Amino acid sequence: MSAIAHEQSRAAPERRRRPAQILVREMWASLAISVMWISVVFAAVFAPDIVSTSASGSATTIPSGVAVALFAVIGTRVVAKYGFGRHDDADAD
Questions:
Q1: How many angstroms separate the CA atoms of 79 and 44, rounded?
Q2: Among 9, 15, 56, 90, which lies 20 to 30 A Cα-Cα from 23?
């Protein structure tokens, strides 16, 4: 007569859940990065330029999309590192 261990059936749903959690984290990271760059496009098209005038009368004009893109690059790197990076501590739980 043989016996079937019930603990294997508990481990199977846990294994199926982990890849789903990873995909959810990657999906939200992708969405956040996409929204950042869409905001850069809207800022570049619709926002006014940054104009700096010195005391001598010379003026410098910079498109506002450049400043927004700088922060989007920083934000993209942070979100990509968190969202797409390996988290061995979180996977061990």
A1: 22
A2: 9
Q: In whole angstroms, what separates CA 55 from the centre of its chain?
A: 41
68: number of Cβ within 10 Å: 19
d(CA 52, CA 61): 6
CB atoms within 10 A of CB 91: 10
Q: Do 48 and 64 touch, CB atoms closer than 8 A? A: yes
CB atoms inside a 10 Å sphere around CB 50: 13
Average pLDDT, the chain: 82
Amino acid at 59: A
Q: pLDDT tier at 60 (50, 70, 90 boundaries)?
A: very high
What gap in Å lies between CA 79 and CA 72, rounded to an integer?
Answer: 10
